[in-house]
Amino acid sequence: MSLFDKVPACDSAPVEGRRGFLKGLVAAGALAIAPGVTLYKFAEAAGVSSAVRWGMLIDINKCEDGCSACVTACAEENGWRGHGNPRTDAQWIRKVTLTDKQTGFKKSLPVMCQHCAEPPCVYVCPTGASFKRADGIVLVDKHICIGCRYCMMACPYKARSFVHEDVDGQKPHAPRGKGTVESCTLCVHRVDEGRQPACVEACAKDGGHAFMFGDLNDPSSDISKQLAQYGATAIRGDLGVDPGVRYRGL
Fold first, then answer.
1. pTM of the model
2. Residue 1 forms part of a structural domain
């Protein structure tokens, strides 16, 4: 049973009508975000298929408390940076510290969008700006995001950020815009080119090798073999959202 099986059925016509209306309202301003750049090309990339489900395995035993290579790499790759305000700064990926209250043991681990099979953010979005690709990557189309922040409230992982500040230095593959919501894209532009996400590559380069990225649907992939042999834990697995990011040592 999925998280949404208990949601009562309703007439979808009003919802679709509202989405169409809201899309119309923002259409004129959408191009102001990043002229000539759109996430539609990533949504419709050639070869995207439900036969593949991209996911990530993170071994927190290999994740050093003081290391932030993954955060730095993500910020540089996707053109976001902090302004010194932890309440409003972007956090496509962040390091959090977990503490065992009984023993006092502490461990640091990275948290980002979990790219759920049943993403609550997609379910609550009134415009369709939050969407899931066939291969499981969850994205936000900034061109039709109206900044309502319903997705932020729905996300159990606090993995989304609202852009409070003016933005500059945007990357062609990662359009951003003040007044919109954003989150980890699994470096979808890299994935579509057959490359690894920036955080995975940076961790390996730094010697940590805490990240593993691959196809969860392919039993012969390295990530699937590791999960089958050693297992892993999903954060808040009880919610039934089936995260695409799993943790070992949690």
1. 0.83
2. no
For residue 183, give its domain range.
12-248
Half-sphere exposure of 216 toward its Cβ, with a 13 Å CA cutoff? 20
The domain spanning residue 107 has which CATH number?
A: 3.30.70.20
Ranges of beta strands (E only) in the chain are 54-59, 93-99, 106-112, 130-132, 138-140, 161-162, 181-182, 211-215, 245-248
Measure the CA–CA gap between 34 and 246, rounded to whole angstroms.
Answer: 33
Q: Which residues of 200-224 are buried (b: 16+ CB within 10 A; e: fewer)?
A: bbbbeebebebbbbbbbbeeebebb
Cα–Cα distance for residue pair 151/104, rounded to 1 Å: 34
Tell me the per-residue pLDDT of 17-28, one tens digit each, with 9 for 90 and over.
Answer: 544 544 444 444
Q: What integer pLDDT is reported at residue 9 of this predicted model?
A: 37
Query: C-alpha 223: how far from its chain's center?
Result: 18
Helix/strand/coil for 100: coil
82 in any annotated domain: yes
Considering the domain boundaries, does residue 83 fall inside one? yes
Looking at every residue in the chain, the average pLDDT score rounds to: 85
Strands 54-59 and 181-182: unpaired
In a domain, 192, yes or no: yes
Residue-wise pLDDT tens digits, 148-205: 999 999 999 999 999 998 888 888 899 888 999 999 999 999 999 999 999 999 999 9
Decide: helix, strand or coil at residue 71.
helix
Domain count, the chain: 1
